[in-house]
Amino acid sequence: MSLMSMLSVLFAVLAAVSNAMGTVLQRRAALIVPQSDGFQLRLMWDLLRTPIWFFGILGVIFAAIFQGLALVTGPLAVVQPIFVLELPFALLISGLVFRKAMVRRGWLSVGCIVVGLGTALAAASPSGGEQQPPAALWMLALVCCGGMMVLLAGAALKRPVGPARAACLGTAAAIGYALTAALMKSATDTLDHGGVKAFFTAWQTYAFAAVGVCALFLLENAMQAGPLVASQPALTLGDALISLSLGVTLYAESVRVGWWLVPEIFGVGLVLLGVVGLSRLQSGTGSGAEGAQPQSKRDSSVDVAGSA
Predict the structure, then answer these.
(1) What pLDDT, in 10s, does the model give residues 154-185?
(2) Whole-prediction pTM
(3) How many CA atoms lie within 13 A of 121 on its CB side?
(4) How many domains does the chain have?
């Protein structure tokens, strides 16, 4: 592995850790605000008045910085799948902060995610790619991803609060985060080669900011809409797989196929098994308790370590 590839992986892991910290704090903030504000712009206003939410956003900001550095030094198809590690990091961080020990099932799930991710990436071996995709491909990607986000958000609105709504919003958020990463890679390339002026005059800079805000809004609502076992697998795996697809189609990054698909599918299966296992563990210790509590008692009764 080259030095640039190692730096890319390092920055991607740091981004996952920072985002995990942000997720823990945002989850706590999302559970504090009134449930009735779900999928309304007022939700963001309530969150702005919640101090813990600002610390969560700080984690997101550092994650964005590390993510930008990772995307400058490595392929999109390598960087984004590493964000799968955000879920075990979130559980580990919440366990340390709130003094909740990880049970054996949790460690097994973490092992599945780490081994599965390593197997899938080693087998796929993403490499190469263009620095700037052509305008026609950008238009196609924006229309397809944006259209799917709108359709999924519309489908969520037609469903009551619960797993189906959470899964739809989680998938929509995953598409948004994958598209944000693709736009960020292009924008950071202009910064690397054209300087600050080129960065602030590139349309991708403002596009990734706008799409990122939309994805954040969808994520906050997915957290409120239902248990993590419904939204987290869609969010975690959706981001990784859609980013891989955008890396191949937009940036012409290559992955190995043929018999390599066998270990790749095996690795993805292990990741899915681990993500679902951790999500069920979190839902069983946190989300289930949330649903059983009256709204007036949620602030004091929520087990954050089990709900991160």
Answers:
(1) 998 888 878 888 889 999 999 999 999 899 88
(2) 0.74
(3) 22
(4) 1
